[in-house]
Amino acid sequence: MTKIPKQCGDLEWVEFMPSAVMVLGDGGRVLGANQQMADLLGRESGEAMKKLKNDELTVEEDRECDVEDLQKLLEKGSGVYHKAKRYLRGNGEVVLAQVKGRVVEDFIVVEVVSVEGGHSGISELVQGYDLLHRIMDRSPFLIYTRDLKGRYVVVNKRYEEVFGINRRDLEGMTPFEILPKESAETVMNRDRAVLEAEKSLEFEEVLQFKGREIHSLTWSFPIYDQSGGLCGVGGMSMDISQRIEMENKLKKANKSIESAYEELRMTQLALIQAEKMESIGRLAAGVAHEVKNPLAMLLMGIDYLDGLPRDIDVNLEEILKEMRTAVMRAEGIVHGLVDFSAQRQLEFSRVDMNFIVDSCLPFLRHELTRDRIKLIVDQADDLPDMMVDVQKFEQVVINLAINAIHAMVDGGGELKLRTRWKVLKGMSSDDGRRTREHLRNGDTVTVLEIEDTGPGIPKENLSRVFDPFFTTKATGEGTGLGLSICKKIIELHHGLIRIDSEEGRGTKISLTIKAVTGDRKKDSEYQGVRDFEK
Question: Are residues 229 and 252 part of one domain?
Answer without folding.
Answer: no
